[in-house]
Predict the 3D structure of the following.
Amino acid sequence: MVNFRTMVESLKGLFKPSTVPYPYREIPPAEGYRGKPVYDKDKCIGCGACSRVCPALAITVSDGEGKRVVRVWYGHCAFCGRCEDSCPQEAIKLSRDYLAVSFNKEELEDKVELELARCPSCGSTFTTVRQLDKIFELVSQTLVKRGASLDEYRRLTMLCPSCRSKPAALMEAHRFMLKMG
């Protein structure tokens, strides 16, 4: 009896396959499927939060020649969604795209290039211009309410961490804080 059932099921599979004829017909992903991450290049500020939480090390951040490059390698990505959860600007979202195959290595990566800010004191680069602008945007309303000078704040935030720790900059920051009350 068992052999007869096995033969019947085998014959059913022979005439009507139980699989989808992929890749000739697209298979819609299930609801909640986590596909490859996609950057919104206009929202990304280059903070690097996504690269710090990526367990597969698929996202890298590198600085060079006045630019910061945030790069995701889809061949390494585990589609876990930690990058999406950690992004403060919601600039990276997991798509429903599950195709991450290619003969061309460049097609398996996505990158965002952002301009680096230069310290007016020493000329070193330390963060992106977009990140400094976002910080300024977030605190500007509070600064205006407290009667602080926006230009003075911008001048202080444009300094790199090593220049900010110099005595003259610390004194200027102290005076700025006293003005705010």
Observations:
- The mean pLDDT is 89.
- The first helix runs from residue 2 to 15.
